[in-house]
Amino acid sequence: MPQRVRLIRTHAQRLPGILLGALLLWACQAAGTALAGALNWPVPGAVLGMLLLWVLLCALRRVPRGLDTVASALLSHLMLPLIPLVAGVMDHAALLRVHGAGLLLLCVGGVVATTLCVAAAYTAVCRSAPPRSRTAEGSQ
User: Fold this and answer.
1) Alpha-carbon gap, residue 84 to 54, rounded angstroms
2) How far is CA 27 from the centre of its chain?
3) What is the DSSP letter of 132?
4) Short-list 25, 26, 114, 43, CA closest to 85
5) What is the pLDDT of residue 11?
């Protein structure tokens, strides 16, 4: 059997799982949007959808292969973790106009605080770790 035919057959066998993975992502996002609208919560539906997906994956205790394939493809081309944030900003544009400067200051402060904490933790771990020998460094 030619390699091209084997490749097509392999992809065709994986297609139902990939479609189910994409359907699961869409269903969680749609359910989150519906839930946010029904409860009139000031939380973007995409965030609630991601929480629903997380609960589902925790209940399954594994990531289905099709979902893993779809999510990996999306993550390699999109910044999927930022999509709920962007949706939230777009949903609350009026609040952003009023409180944008404060939010920007808060974000910058958070980045600075996080950087300082990570640097302090890294420095503490490096100081408490035993020094590596030259033979170990040369063999790696």
Assistant:
1) 14
2) 17
3) P
4) 43
5) 63
